[in-house]
Structures are given as structure tokens and as C-alpha cells.
């Protein structure tokens, strides 16, 4: 007996249902592929598997333990969001051309983006709170440098023998665990310095792993940052404070020490080329000296900072060593004094 419902609502054709589901599957696979490609193009990496509706964390610096990258493909797979906490990057992706979306589709996309943004922010806040506690505990284990300790010996070998002239924010951890790709490789002495955000919060610790004799340790990566407890954009290792409205900035700690001692300009370390590009000078600074590394990344980062500082009304001196591939620590090692001349603006 055929039911009355079936007379008015005939059962769908199984072949049509299968074709529809197959079409949906194809669109889903295409969205997953396109979303992953967009993430890789922007960040250099993406999760191996992306599950629609789930927030994923993944590395963007090539290290397995890093979770700075994040992404979420929306449940309908028609859009998603992704970014990197380290780089301060946030991007939106859509499978369809935004110009051809209906008002309803745009409203749905906006709701998805808002919900994903709230979820990502909540997860990140919780992670930052945990990491801030870890950073505080680790910094509390560090001690001031003393004559003959591994960090003092290391800096002496790099050309900085006068201990009393070194910034007090550079300290020693006598036995710091070294982790590599999730494996503990032992405990080593380490030179440690805080990375400070523009709002004066310590957002990470810079660690240089050493031997007891004050040489670089034989480990895969000698210099590392801890996981961050806040945005790194604009942060620096504040080795020195501005003097008479002037501050210098460069990439590494030793490079900043060399630039400062060679030129007399108080200099901070932005820890990498991207850090130089995003560096934010303290209030009251009127003159900025950029001690750039003589390589492509160093020049490009210095140019970005220079343009931004000039737009803000600062006087800018851009200093680059004449020999390609060197930095101001190399210049200092050769005892060639840094002079504030050159590309002034």
C-alpha cells in the first residue's frame, strides 16, 4: 500500500541523491585543498589535515613544537580564517567570489568570522596566561652575570670583556633544559634576556645555549625564543634606554652590544629581521639609528622601519656594513668603530 505522504512527496531518485552527495564531496575536497593552499602561500605551512568547524594550531617556523599558526575552515566549507600569532597576521578566505555573494551569504560569512575570531581570541588568551607564568618562573631562575660564568665567558669571546659595562637584563641560567622537536636533549648553561613589548610586558625570553666554557653549545638551534605570552610585534630586548631622545635598533643581542659600544648610541635588539621591521620605539624618541645587517632580509626590514619612522616625524640614520653578509658584531670584532654617518634623513 502506498502511503498518502508518498503520493504527495515521492521518494528521491537514489541515483540523483548519489550524484548530489558526490558533487558536495567534490566541492568539499576542492575547498579543503584551496584553503590549505591559501594558508601555505601566506604562512609557508598548513595543517596536514583540516577538519571543517574545528580550530587548528600548527607551526609556521619549521619547528614541530611551534603553535603560532592557526586556522578554521567554517562548517559549510565556503569560507575560513587563518593567521599567525607571531607575525600578527589575520586573513579571511572564501571559496566564492565575495563580489558575487548574496546579502544572505555575506551575512552568514560575517557571523562565521565573528564566531571564529572570538574562539581564537579565547584560546590564545588562555595560552598566553599559561606561558606568562612559565616565563616568570624561568626568569626567576636566572642570575646576574659574574666573572668567569659561561655567559660572561661567551660575551668575552664575542668581544665584550668588560662585565660592568654589560646590561643587567642579560642574565645566566646555570642549567636550562634543551628541547628539540619534542625531545629533551639535556641541560645546558644559557644566556637569557627578556623580550619586552611596547606596553612594557615581558612577552618572551631569548635564550642562547652555551657550554660551561662559554662557547656556543653543539645543539640544532643555539638561539631560541620561548613561546610568547603576548604579541611579539614591536617588541625588543631593551639592552639600553634612549639617551637624549635617541635610540638604536638592530637584530641580535651581540650586534646591539657592538653597535652601542662602537657608536655610543644606546641600542636594543629586535631579535630578528621581522622584529626590526615591526619595532616600535619608546615615547619621546626623536632620532632612530637602524644598524641593519648587510643582507637582503636585513636591508628590507630596515627600509620598512625607516619609512615608518620618517612618516612619524623621526630623524633616521640607516647604517649598513660595507661587506655583504656581515653585521655590526662582525665590524666590532674587527675593532672598526661604528660612526653615525651615512644615510641620514
Explain this structure to me?
The termini are far apart. Mean pLDDT is 85; it is low at 4-9 and 336-345. This protein folds into three domains: 34-133, no CATH class; 142-232, no CATH class; 233-345, Dna Topoisomerase Vi A Subunit, Chain: A, domain 2. A hairpin with a 5-residue loop joins β7 and β8. The chain contains eight helices and 14 strands. By secondary structure, it is of the alpha+beta class. It is globular, with a radius of gyration of 26 Å.
Strand order of the largest sheet: 5-6-7-8-9
CATH architecture annotation name of the largest domain? 3-Layer(aba) Sandwich
By secondary-structure content and strand pairing, the structural class works out as: alpha+beta
Radius of gyration: 26 Å
The total tally of domains equals 3
Strand % is: 15-25%
Tell me, rounded to a whole number, the average pLDDT.
Answer: 85
The top level CATH class name of the largest domain:
Alpha Beta
Unreliable segments of 5+ consecutive residues: 4-9, 336-345
What's the end-to-end separation, in Å?
92 Å
Helix content: 25-40%
How many distinct beta strands? 14
Keywords:
5-stranded mixed beta sheet; 3 domains; alpha+beta; Dna Topoisomerase Vi A Subunit, Chain: A, domain 2; about 350 residues; disordered C terminus
Q: Which helices and strands appear, and what pairs or packs with what?
A:
Layout (H helix, E strand, L loop, with lengths): L3 H5 L5 H30 L11 E4 L10 E5 L5 E6 L4 E6 L8 H38 L2 E2 L5 H8 L13 E10 L2 E14 L5 E8 L13 E3 L20 E5 L2 H11 L3 E3 L3 H6 L8 E5 L4 H16 L3 E5 L8 H6 L9 E2 L1
Parallel strand pairs: 10-11, 10-12, 12-13
Antiparallel strand pairs: 1-2, 2-3, 3-4, 5-6, 6-7, 7-8, 8-9, 13-14
Amino acid at each position: 500500500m502506498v502511503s498518502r505522504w508518498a503520493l504527495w512527496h515521492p521518494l528521491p531518485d537514489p541515483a540523483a541523491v548519489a550524484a548530489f552527495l558526490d558533487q558536495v564531496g567534490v566541492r568539499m575536497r576542492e575547498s579543503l585543498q584551496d584553503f590549505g593552499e591559501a594558508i601555505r602561500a601566506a604562512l609557508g605551512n598548513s595543517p596536514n589535515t583540516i577538519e571543517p568547524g574545528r580550530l587548528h594550531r600548527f607551526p609556521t617556523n619549521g619547528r614541530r613544537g611551534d603553535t603560532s599558526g592557526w586556522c578554521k575552515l567554517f562548517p559549510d566549507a565556503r569560507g575560513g580564517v587563518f593567521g599567525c600569532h607571531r607575525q600578527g597576521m589575520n586573513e579571511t578566505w572564501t571559496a566564492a567570489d565575495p563580489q558575487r555573494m548574496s546579502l544572505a551569504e555575506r551575512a552568514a560569512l560575517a557571523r562565521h568570522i565573528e564566531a571564529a575570531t572570538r574562539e581564537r581570541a579565547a584560546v590564545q588568551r588562555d595560552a598566553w596566561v599559561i606561558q606568562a607564568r612559565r616565563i616568570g618562573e624561568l626568569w626567576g631562575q636566572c642570575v646576574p652575570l659574574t666573572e668567569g660564568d659561561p655567559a660572561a665567558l661567551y660575551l668575552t669571546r664575542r668581544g665584550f670583556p668588560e662585565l660592568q659595562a654589560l646590561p643587567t637584563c642579560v642574565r645566566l641560567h646555570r642549567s636550562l633544559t634543551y628541547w628539540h622537536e619534542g625531545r629533551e636533549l639535556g641541560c645546558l648553561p644559557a644566556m637569557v634576556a627578556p623580550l619586552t613589548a611596547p606596553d612594557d610586558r615581558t612577552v618572551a625570553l631569548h635564550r642562547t645555549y652555551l657550554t660551561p666554557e662559554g662557547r656556543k653549545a653543539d645543539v640544532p638551534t643555539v638561539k631560541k625564543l620561548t613561546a610568547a605570552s603576548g604579541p611579539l610585534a614591536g617588541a625588543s630586548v631593551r639592552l639600553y634606554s634612549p639617551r637624549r631622545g635617541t635610540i638604536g635598533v638592530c637584530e641580535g643581542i651581540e650586534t646591539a652590544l657592538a653597535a652601542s659600544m662602537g657608536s655610543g648610541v644606546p641600542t636594543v635588539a629586535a631579535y630578528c629581521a621581522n622584529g626590526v621591521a615591526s619595532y616600535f620605539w619608546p615615547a619621546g624618541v626623536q632620532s632612530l639609528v637602524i644598524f641593519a645587517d648587510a643582507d637582503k632580509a636585513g636591508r628590507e626590514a630596515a627600509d620598512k622601519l625607516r619609512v615608518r619612522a620618517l612618516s612619524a616625524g623621526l630623524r633616521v640614520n640607516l647604517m649598513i656594513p660595507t661587506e655583504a653578509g656581515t653585521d655590526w658584531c662582525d665590524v666590532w670584532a674587527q675593532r672598526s668603530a661604528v660612526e653615525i654617518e651615512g644615510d641620514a634623513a
